[in-house]
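As a warm-up, study this chain.
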Amino acid sequence: MPWQHIRVARFGGPEVLEFVEEAAVPEPGAGEVRIKVLAAGTGFTDTMIRRGRYPDDAIGGAHFARSFACLASGGLLIGYGSQTMAVGGEGLAQAGLGLARLKLWRALRLLFRNRSGVFYSITARRRTHPYEFASDMATLFGLLHERAIHPVVIDRLGLGDAREVHARIDAGGFGGKIVLLPWRDG
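Now compare it with the structure written out below.
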């Protein structure tokens, strides 16, 4: 079975995106499964990762404390994603400080006008609360199926159009997701 994918071998502009066609899909290794991707959304975060500039504000970064300071009474700051700590420009010490701040703000929320902070990682959530995670995903996909929620999809293009899509995202001026479809030629 042929396999199409996008390879990013280095950081840079849309030109670093390589459309690759392989003769066969690799066989999954021990503890792995094969997942058929019918469509993949792409957006601003993807362009930041491609440029090597994501995230600009790691947990513990300068904007993190300012975001907490801007919270209304009873507000909640959510620090999310282990990638933020792993690749953020702030370094491991700042990431540790950020996690400590979240715990401190939560523990002492009465001193901070009932504002607090928590850390959220979808990967950790799936690992630590697998049944709740599965239920959350089933609910989310049920809402999508029932058309109760409406993701903003502004275009659907073939996987081979990934460079064009990233150039459009870099240029800005629109809101929503562009979905890349593996079965359409780019």
